[in-house]
Amino acid sequence: MKPKLVIIFLVSLVIMVFSFYMLARLLGSSSGGSESVGANVTMENGAQVIAISAKGGYTPRQTNATAGLPTVIRVTTSNSYDCSVSLAVPKLRYQRFFQPSETVDIPVTAAEARGKLSGVCGMGMYSFNINFN
User: Fold this and answer.
1) What angle is formed at CA 72 by the lines to CA 46 and CA 131, rounded to 5 degrees?
2) In the chain, N or C: fewer CB atoms in 10 Å?
3) What CATH number is attached to the domain comprising 86?
């Protein structure tokens, strides 16, 4: 083969591999139609508790929870020194700056625990969504 054809072949191969990788990531991150309650959701004292970690963004970014239940969003920071320590939840009219290491409970009433609830950092770089179904 000519060197020019080899280069074209290799570049094409790299593009195809990258495309398949991105497609697999995209398909793997979707919910696949499942509306089950997330692994980060537990029940405590009659309320569902949604655990969110804030460090370099929010984890998990997507959570499914049961609608119509009193809920607590439990945000935990651990040596966090980025903009994820500044959280706003517009639907709740909630805004707070967290300490670098602390745990804070954000109450959500049963009436507010419906539809989609989003949180975003102070710079708009990081976010999370809670889908109440």
Assistant:
1) 105
2) N
3) 2.60.40.420
User: pLDDT tens across 67-126, in order?
Assistant: 999 999 999 999 999 999 999 999 999 999 999 999 999 999 999 999 999 999 999 999
Residue with tokens 């919910």: 31
On whether the CB atoms of residues 94 and 85 are closer than 8 A, the answer is no
Q: Measured between alpha carbons, how far is 125 from 50 in angstroms, rounded to an integer?
A: 21
Structural domain boundaries enclosing 126? 41-132
Q: Which positions ≥6 away from 84 have C-beta within 8 Å?
A: 54, 55, 56, 57, 58, 77, 121, 126
Contact indicator for 111, 132 with CB cutoff of 8 Å: no
Q: Is residue 14 a part of any domain in this protein?
A: no
The alpha carbon of 95 is separated from its chain's Cα centroid by a whole number of angstroms, namely: 18
CB 49 within 8 A of CB 75: no
